[in-house]
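Hello,

Following up on my earlier ticket. Below are the two sequence lines again, exactly as submitted.
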Amino acid sequence: MPSGAGREGTGGGGGAPPQSKKMKFAVVVFPGSNCDEDAYHAVTDVLGQHAEYIWHKDTDLKGADVVILPGGFAHGDYLRTGAMARFSPIMREVERFAARGGPVLGICNGFQVLLEAGLLPGAMLRNDNLKFRCEHVYIRVEQTDTPFTLACRRGQVLRIPIAHGEGNYFAEPDVIARLEANRQIVFRYTDAAGDVRETANPNGSKAAIAGLCNEARNVVGLMPHPERACESVLGSADGLLIFESVVAALKTGAFGGSTGPALQTVR
Amino acid sequence: MIDSQILERHGLKRDEYDRIVQFLGREPNLTELGIFSVMWSEHCSYKSSRVHLKTLPTEGPQVLQGPGENAGAIDIGEGLAAVFKIESHNHPSFIEPYQGAATGVGGIIRDIFTMGARPIALLNSLRFGELETPGTSRLLEGVVAGIAGYGNSIGIPTVGGEIAFEPSYAGNPLVNVFCLGIAVASDIIKGVASGVGNSVYYVGAKTGRDGIHGATMASAEFDEKSAEKRPAVQVGDPFMEKLLLEACLEVMRTDALVGIQDMGAAGLTCSTTEMGSRGGAGVEIDVSLVPQRETGMTPYEIMLSESQERMLLVVKRGREAEVERVFEKWDLHAVHIGEVTSDGLLRVKDQGHVVAEIPNRALTDEAPVYRRPMAEPEYLAGVRRLDLDALAEKGPYFFSANHDLLALLGSPTIGSKRWVYRQYDHMVRTNTLNVPGLGAGVVRIKGTDRALALSVDGNGRYCYLDPYRGAMLAVAEAARNVACAGARPLGATNCLNFGNPERPAIMWQFAQAVEGIGAACRALGVPITGGNVSLYNETDGRAIYPTPVIGVVGLLEHADRLLSRRFQAAGDIIVLLGEDRGELGGSEYLKVVHGLVAGVPPALNLESERALESLLVDLADLRILKSAHDCSDGGLAVTLAECCFDAGGIGAEISIEAVHAARAMAMNRAAALFGESASRVIVSTTVDNVTEVLERAAAAGVPARIVGRTGGNLLRVAVGGHMAIDLSVDEAERAWSSAVERYFQRRVA
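Thanks for your patience. The regenerated structure is below:
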């Protein structure tokens, strides 16, 4: 990390690939969101795409191509995490966007909001060690046919930080079985070699689940923070793959607010 | 009728009461007495410390705001300011660890954004009794969870800090919290009320009965009844504060604001009087308009409540609607509770009837100031005596240097604090370049090429043995840590934790420490821009070690020239900058291995220190260093070991000279390995660059010599040609990694 390599994006300007039209990311801001600026920075300054903050009381995604629900403590998380955010006016629009096949990424608290909103199955419990944990972990990419993992290799191990107190994913065994059968488990906690081990599971999540997608595969939620791992000066640039994936997916037309061609065609 | 019992409950002395009567020209009513009692409490008035604090250096070309405002500010170039301060929350944290620590974090964050700065980093400095002492692990767990609970929720990373364990803190832990924010230098906002007729607004959480007399509690000693003071501890709501933070920063962009201040200690009382006093104006409010959480609250209770997450704003007349709109957006209600007046009075009304009327100056500038008697403590002569030869003869016996090093690495004060800092979100805001545990915390400033390095340091044991020298060493260590990251130290903030100032020995410690801080800050070019004094840190008549904690902020003009403590590659050359004098007085070695707190702390030559720090910044800027690590607790051997940790198992082969501190060989070896001589840094560099490093050190007048080379997976240190330490890095790192964690492992589900 002290090495001088990879300071891309710290200059505040965009490092946009000049050859293409920029994609527009909506970063939804709930009261209590605190990773909204980090997602915005990763998308604009590092990735070179457009981003716009969308206030939770808004009812319009303003023509966004991708929606990010960022991390934080929406509404203070005094009830279950994400339990109040699902009632924010913008969530109706996010649901419609998702139903049309638009790519939606929920990070950390954003993942919890997706669970509460019913866009993804299951629930979050307190970490099994009962402590908030912030550190780099390894996650393995299980599925590459989602808009957020298109640019990854299957089985690829990413080093990405977590920062949560309630990331212990829980679902009933039949739900887990269905997730497995439908290939909806997108990321699992592993060790550096990519092996699932109890010691590599930071929070006790069932089936070592770090991230999921819905059946239509356009809505992805994960507990780790890819937006914190987009520049090597911050310890890892592996998270950039997640954002690059969705740019690639949109370019191929596989995903978008209107129903695009089936994803299989872009793989 | 005000009788002596009422006075005692308010912590006021009879002569202080007489002064109140003189100021008012009449007897105060109970509300007025309450207002005087909190404003004249040690916590708010600095009545014992003020005469000493005045001697501190507070000026410099880089200083944009010195002491007296909510926080200090220094110029960091490109039109930006670093706004920072450190504050204590010791007393509340002992009574209620989670909420005490949490509200400490909340308070210091408010001080920063009140200045118009966006808070971007937190640090903390904590002191506890030994972890073996019953109750200590629970206290640590609660304090850490409280800091995490607040900082993580609000989304400000905790990027560093320090923790030490000493028996003297068992009945009185220290929780000092530091916050840094960034502001546009020209947009710094102050806590002033001015412009007659301007509107006074109340924003944030409702006022409850919590925290009444928190400031007076913080101005008294503890005894076995202290737990009964729990109702005086406030409860924090980080979500409310997050809303306040965003809404206030948005309001500040409108220029409709005249001044703003948070309601911290002494709540509404302190914010109204201080704002009025700074603006040379009066403030009139009606407490019946203040949003209240409980029914039947009296003006006395409303004025003295320390409910958290509340702000007082002065808004330009005619611009009120703009301000109200911003708060509405964030679902906060800004309530118009009064006006700025021209009469210099704090006038409190209740439904239109005046219930208190006091000249602002009587509460602030004219508050009592004491030049309390001082006397050198009697314990000093005894504890300063350290006869190494006698120690060597007495035994009990001598362990191997390997054993001693492992014992030091495994002691909680030196060992890894990972168990603590991984509970803190230290990465949010994606600016953290040096994560906790690597030396100074370093955060980049997006939109520029710059970064800031931050360190908080203090050594209570040193100050117990010699408060003047100990305080100087604290400043030097904080500045040196910042310089080790490659940053030029620019400014400092201090948190002065001491016992009961009414005892001459404590007052002497305080005065000596302030003198030491002043001398070091002047010599090292780091003016004090603000801070906090916490007195009465005593339980059952036993004071804590005098503990000044210093926070230093330094600037890296090029963030990519940042250094950390870790060795980077095998085959690099290891250079020791500075001079070994084998000083064991007050060392961790004496405490951990011999159970001894004795001797005098290491000498400090401020000129050498300054030369060393500026050399480090130059070498980092030239990109000819690969790592740099300050030599402090545990001496050279511990420093070298730490350079090997988290570095992928890179070892080192070292050879150092023997020092002659005693007749006994074993003591000389210990002095060379574990002595804590100041102004020393271990750096690593490539074979190609080492000549330049040595030449530049010589030119700067800094002693420098090659002591070894990185490589292998062993840490081997020879002293005077005899192998003293020969350990696998793995084994050493295991001892270090589990030093704190092992006290909690059993409790993990």
